[in-house]
Amino acid sequence: MHLKINQAKIGYNKTLISNADAHLNLGEVCLLIGNNGVGKTTLIKSILHQIPLLNGEISINNKNVKSLSVKEIAENIAVVFSKSIVPQNYTVEDLISLGKYIYYPFYFELSKKDREEVFHIIEKLDLVQYKNTLLKNLSDGNLQKAFIGRALTQNSSVIILDEPTTHLDEKNKIIILKTLRKLAQEQNKLILFSSHDWRLAKEFADKIWYIKDGHLYSGVVEDILLQHEELTNASLFQINDQFVAPKIIAPDFYKEMLYSLLQKNFQKDLSALNFEFQNNFWLISGSSLQCQCESFQEIVNFVKTIY
Ligand SMILES: Nc1ncnc2c1ncn2[C@@H]1O[C@H](COP(=O)(O)OP(=O)(O)OP(=O)(O)O)[C@@H](O)[C@H]1O
């Protein structure tokens, strides 16, 4: 079982992503990242065939999603959108039971076997004490888990989640991400999820799909991070147009501190300077100058004397 994107052109009247090629296998967790508006949700909807491709093919298990009925797609892929409508007067158990709906033709009463399975999923997600709690009284973290529970009862091999960690605090983010990883490993699910908290999320993913400049880059997390400097440098925000960073050789934490210090204090091009951290002092050098500074205050004072 695998999900394959083959030479796909994705978008609406306007193309958002061209020549997308990527594939995922069962048991893998993939993080989908990219700036606002690059087309993450559109890609997810294209996989579900809710938005037709402009070109190319997306297939599940070698079957083009275009040829699958809505029911067949639901049997293969469960989806959790971040902006899901919350049926306020449903209990956690009601919501999770809904995942079984695709297997029943009409208004239904769950079979004993399905009820047991729903309970088993409630247990697995650590939601037993909230089983009968109304969704409107649930914390955001537990509500998110309940939506994941609904996706699980669907029994599909693929689970896709659009920003499952939005609005959650750090603790709940980690609970959700750990749950996803565990599902992939223990139940051999293929999990694709998008996130803006990707620095944390990448710790739980095997692969990254990264959308940038209309292109989909896919691969093992560490390969993609190495190939795209802007991802690992993302903490060095450019907030000052006139600032050009000097060359900084230092451990990441020191590098980031020096970068923000200089950016805040100098609207200048500092590219002629080199800063090298030497354990207990900074060595600053330029074409005809050299200086040692032991604190950031000294650095600011020194740079002010040259600019
Ligand atoms: N039905 C539609 N018809 C035409 N354009 C659309 C439609 N839906 C979304 N778009 C546009 O497609 C672009 C990508 O939207 P999409 O929601 O896929 O981005 P995203 O990467 O998920 O963004 P975000 O991170 O902000 O959620 C946006 O410019 C959006 O306005």
Automatic annotation (TrEMBL):
Superkingdom, natural source: Bacteria
InterPro entries: AAA+_ATPase, ABC_transporter-like_ATP-bd, Metal_Ion_Import_ABC, P-loop_NTPase
GO molecular function: ATP binding; ATP hydrolysis activity
Span of domain ABC transporter: 1-238
Keyword Cytoplasm: no
Keywords: ATP-binding, Nucleotide-binding, Transport
Range of residues in the leader sequence: none
Recorded family membership: Belongs to the ABC transporter superfamily.
Protein's name in the database: Iron complex transport system ATP-binding protein
Upper taxonomic lineage: Bacteria, Pseudomonadati, Bacteroidota, Flavobacteriia, Flavobacteriales
